[in-house]
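Spend some time on the protein that follows and explain the fold to me:
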Amino acid sequence: MQSEPTKPVRNPKTRLLALTSSFAVIYATLRIIPTFPVVGVPGASFASSDILVPLFGVILGPIFGGAAVLLGTFLGVVFGRPLIFLGLDFLPATIGTISVGFLARGKRIPVIAIFLVALGIFVIHPLSLVFVKLPFALIPFNWLHLATLILLMTPLSKKAAEWVNSRSVSQIARGLAIFAIIGTMIQHVVGGVIFETVLGLIIGRYTQEQFVGIWTTIFFVYPIERIILVTASVLLGTPLLRNIGLARLDRKYLS
């Protein structure tokens, strides 16, 4: 009696490593496609890969998602995307991805800590602009970051982890939008700290007075660009998550 051939056993960890490598290539490819110009850095622009940050976090989790962004950032140099901030370019998107990865697994405390530390560093940084002077009032530069931090602390951010894992398109879109705004605002504040530290304290390209003008311009621009990034992430990620389903991935290695 002839025995049936044994089926090859798939190693979940190997599969995730392969996914991480593939996602890193996708991230690197999109890094060469520019989006919004970086205020204060002539000729530089944000990359289309920023829309992948929440998706990598949801799909791959904090460890593998962060690794894909980290690898993809430096692989992007090979594809023609130069580093701008002394090699620290990977930090904002990596930390944003790690944060979303934690949230998608129902772990809010590490994300709250990351957000508070990053926002605190920005506020006490000597080159930051804490308030923007408008004709009618003084407005906190980080008003949208503060609103997002409040959102993070509400039950909605916890509920979003259930929504992105559902089969409902509307629930996936809702959950992904919450994760995307949290991830992109963490990415933004970390990027701001790196921006002013490298160009101000290390390179000395701009003085404190010049940073006031730069941050004032960014104040009017960043809410628009962040909303566009969130919208793009939701439009791209909703059908993707609907088809693959977070539940089909190996949670043991993603947490």
